[in-house]
Amino acid sequence: MRYISTRGQAPALTFEEAMMTGLARDGGLYVPETVPTFSAEDIAAMAGKSYEDIAFTVMKPFIGDTFTDEEFKGLIDKAYADFGHDARAPLVQLAPNHFLLELFHGPTLAFKDFAMQIIGQMMQAALARSGKRITIVGATSGDTGSAAIEAFRGLDNVDVFIMYPHGRVSEVQRRQMTTAAESNVHALAVEGDFDDCQGKLKEMFNDFEFRDEVHLAGVNSINWGRVLAQVVYYFSSAVSLGAPQRKVSFTVPTGNFGDIFAGFIAKQMGLPVERLVIATNQNDILHRCMQSSDYTKHGVTPSISPSMDIEVSSNFERALFWAHDHDGAAVAGLMDELKTKGTFRISENAMTALRDHYDSGAVDEATTYATIASALEHSGELLCPHSAVGVHVGTEHQGENPEVPMITLATAHPAKFPAAVEKASDVYPPLPPRMADLYDRTERVTQVPNDLAALQAIIRERRAR
Ligand SMILES: Cc1ncc(COP(=O)(O)O)c(C=O)c1O
Ligand SMILES: N[C@@H](CCOP(=O)(O)O)C(=O)O
Predict the structure, then answer these.
(1) What is the rounded CA–CA span in Å between residue 227 and residue 315?
(2) What predicted TM-score, i.e. pTM, was given to this entire model?
(3) Does 103 map to a domain?
(4) Where would I find the Threonine synthase N-terminal domain in this sequence (predicted)?
(5) CA 384 to CA 409: how far, in whole Å?
(6) Is 382 within a domain?
(7) How many structural domains is the chain composed of?
(8) pLDDT (tens digit per residue) in 365-396
């Protein structure tokens, strides 16, 4: 299996190279040259299997001979061993034919753990073989950062720098990132929003001298390994509702588009997915784009679902690559317009290709609060604000096709956003016992301007220590 860049100008890589590289050197994102497919029988055989077994089956064709089967199974087992639920990604029923996929039972209470834990294992195994040392730099709107810290804390051959937007993550999210005591972990509070952090990360990757000097690696969903690991729960949940005999739809609270794009890959692999519904909060650039073909930045407004406060939706580039029949030059052109003008327009053909798979909806703050309250009243489920955005949009879209089961992804635990959840429901969601002392731990963070040179100086200096 070879991996190619969405902008068509970078060398094709193996899985291991793509995973260790992060962003392609032409600024694009790596994707598999071809997507392996499963027959209906292959998918039916997943029924009743453990999450770990399904993970092995789904990911194996993409990783090729990077690891032996035994090695890979061992890495998968280690990755999910600390999850707080034996099913790893349990489904609960919210309403007739509407199901919630709980993706928040991992160590940091968000769906990021599903991918970060396994790529943490795979990267460590690859580093042990190569004897290399890397610098991971991540941009986060709140959840990727803590998941990355959890996966790489305390390792001798990895430094982890996490940039988050100062004052724009929840207190629990901030403390999860700033209270790691290990000296290889560095939390950086950047004066800006998430798009600024992600922009700086991409600038670091595009500064080849810096990139090579610090052996830069990325664990955001620019890394194909992240997307791949997220494909697994689309299979596990669909199969438990009767796939491949029965079609299902998914609604995905969306920001950087990595999670819903994993659903698209599952569909390409043969999973019978009827619709993939993009659910955005008030930062609705993706919804506006699906309606109007215009991807135009308006500026981000902070919301009660801060992890989705994103306007430069990184993985939308991967969706555009498919919508343009793998035409890297066309994608590079659109990305260039976004960078220079803050806007691009998608052609009719490409829009048709996107609309073949994706629907969308946007949710304002008042509706998000109301959805938390009504889900608790009608199903007993306490939602985080991101999941509530998904549930509202999922409910609306299920009405259009009620006989197809709708699976809405619950992307974070309500305890990560206690203020918003309590305001909506009068219920204060407690942290799980293993995190009960989070508010007593000492915080360690460096406030940094939104400035490439300043960020690079800190990274150079700290990693050398
Ligand atoms: C809790 C939560 N929900 C939803 C999202 C959006 O996911 P994606 O960026 O993959 O679209 C994120 C951040 O990525 C998140 O942390
Ligand atoms: N919502 C994310 C933003 C980064 O997304 P990623 O999937 O590209 O890592 C976060 O919580 O950090």
Answers:
(1) 9
(2) 0.98
(3) yes
(4) 2-80
(5) 11
(6) yes
(7) 1
(8) 999 999 999 999 999 999 999 999 999 999 99
